[in-house]
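Holo model, zinc ion. Inputs:
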Amino acid sequence: MTNSSSPAPAQADCIFCKIVAGEIESQLVKETENVIAFRDINPQAPLHVLVVPRRHYGDVTQLAGSDPKLLAEMVKVANAVAAEHADGQFRFIFNSGPNAGQSVFHVHGHVLGGARLGWTPA
Ligand code: 5GP
Ligand code: ZN
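Output:
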């Protein structure tokens, strides 16, 4: 059984750990003590921002099991981003696993907004 109660340290091959460390540039829109938010490089809506905890967790289930307060902080940041950069309404998506579309294995929530959104994930 794997131990999901503690996060891995920053991972050398993790692109979002590198963005958190400032080793890869990003268009930051918000930062808190524990969370950063930056524009997705391949936007799927007028507002498309990624909300990312500074600490590395592989996916939202690992994060929720280890640090639910941090997950709540991510929701707050998503809400603030949508209020500051769109009309306050937003979709907050966590892809979990490759079949769900996860391609970066450092947990992140996609904040989508700025338009009336469709619903055709498959
Ligand atoms: P996932 O597919 O894991 O749910 O989401 C990963 C997201 O990260 C994708 O929407 C992709 O466009 C975005 N992404 C991948 N590499 C970079 C990068 O270097 N910079 C930024 N800003 N976004 C990235
Ligand atoms: Zn990472």
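The chain has one domain: 15-113. The longest helix spans residues 68-85.
Archived with the compound record.
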